[in-house]
Design goal:
alpha/beta; 5-stranded parallel beta sheet; about 35% helix; globular; binds phosphoric acid mono(formamide)ester
Length: about 325
Amino acid sequence: MAANTKLEHLIDIKSLSTEEILAIADRALELKNGAKPLSLKGKHAAMIFFENSTRTYFSFEMALNKLGASVYNFETSKSSLSKGEDFFDTVNNLSAIGFDACIIRTSKEGLIKRTLGERTKEKGKEREFFKKIALINAGEGTSAHPTQALLDFVTIKEKFKNLDGLNLVIVGDIRHSRVAKSNIELLNRFNISVKCVAPGYFKDENIKNVEWCENLNEALENADIVMALRIQKERIQGIIEFEDYIKNYQITEENLPKNAILMHPGPVNRDIEVTSGLLDSKKGEIILEQAHNGVFTRMAILEMILKNEKGVNNV
Ligand code: CP
């Protein structure tokens, strides 16, 4: 059954209750197993992507189509943002036109929260939209990618019926990774131990509640899940020491523990974070399963946010 909660937006993991996280995961797996989706016919969603995307963009589009909603690509370079329109005004006009949701990917930290008026709320003058419109974070800067963390959680829940005491190791460019930060926030709600392994240049000391480690082989001992991250070349100034990285941090057929699963949010830099041999082996299949689960997870999120107050008819 689609969960009965009052979720209006999806900004970050922090703003979700543990019950909402579990409800999204359970519903995603129900949908994957053939449950009938709710109908969002008559709902209109704008895809506002300032950064490139394959998995997030198309799995949101696929999810909206499966739910019967109408989906529109907001071409950022052809929009009036290029004439200097404020982003709040853009969203407010989309709400006036009749949109019910904006799915936003941006490199600007805090843009989505600011658009919801938190900044102006502090000054006592919260801005209202023309009519109710949901904002959904599809990846923001280096800080948050909540729908990726949720689909990763769905994948973990599917593979391990009991989450208690699992050991997860995150490897790589943690400093620039919004995926790592959202995953850590989410996994800290459960009894899953998270170890972060990175060279000094990819560490982020602001991340708490994890164990930091520089030695990959030590970190991988007892790992149940190994989550490799993409090196975010576009966010890094200066030279990246690929040779050093590959020698010390690449996940290979040899160092991946036999019983551990391998995850990666994608896109993968082949033969940098993970060897091609491993990606193309049975062990690499879960990375595609993550992309597959992204559709059902986003359907569950959209159902939760966009269903009518009185409930919605099944398709
Ligand atoms: N994992 C992820 O966000 O992939 P895309 O950039 O292709 O959406």
